Hints:
Structural class of chain B: mainly beta
Helix content of chain A: under 10%
Radius of gyration of chain A: 14 Å
Strand content of chain B: over 45%
Structural class of chain A: mainly beta
Number of strands of chain B: 11
Helix content of chain B: under 10%
Number of helices of chain A: 0
Radius of gyration of chain B: 14 Å
Distance between the termini of chain A: 41 Å
Number of helices of chain B: 0
Shape of chain A: globular
Strand content of chain A: over 45%
Largest sheet of chain B: 7 strands, mixed
Order of helices and strands of chain B: EEEEEEEEEEE
Number of strands of chain A: 11
Oligomer: heterodimer
Amino acid sequence: GENVEQHPSTLSVQxxxxxxxxxxxxxxxxxxxxxxxxxxxxxxxxxxxIRSNVGEKKxxxxxxxLNKTAKHFSLHITETQPEDSAVYFCAxxxxxxxxxxxxxxxxQGTILTVHP
Amino acid sequence: NAGVTxxxxxxxxxxxxxxxxxxxxxxxxxxxxxYRQDPGMxxxxxxxxxxxxxxxxxxxxxxxxxxxxTTEDFPLRLELAAPSQTSVYFCASKKRFGGKSQxxxxxxxxTRLLVL
Lengths: 116, 116
């Protein structure tokens, strides 16, 4: 089955700096890669996703890049703000049908702290 | 839409007790999932369902049971609670098809369970 590794486990930055979180996956059939943000006491919320036919996607201060050959993808947050502090999870899924039923395999999570 | 709702928010169980974690979604989603999240770890899939009357095991199904009698509800049953089941439980749902959003899982706020 799919295995997703996420690094770093904790990341501390100053407000205004950039933050980068990296994930690798093992199953070359995976074709959908979402990123979730989880605030304290809440469920994960989707912040951005990318499909395997795209190399990069941006949404304001957030961007995700995908390297299918190397099987890794990354989340980039620019101009970080204290409200970006949360746990971030990457995930991978094969959305092509069959028996996968869109199951997500999650990375271990990164605790991001943005200091004012 | 309320989205995905879960009850209770928090529960303490004694070893050997049983309980049902409730999950309801009002988005008419076909797919529903149960995950557990242990401290410092990503989410692990317990059970999933692709529609009413159809359920299947995920990565960590032992000690749990599910049912899906309606599209809206997907309860998770713990029959004989054990300390190893202390965790935060998240329910999620997604569309079967319908454009880009078909790939996105929407999560509930979680149920925190402590087994003593």
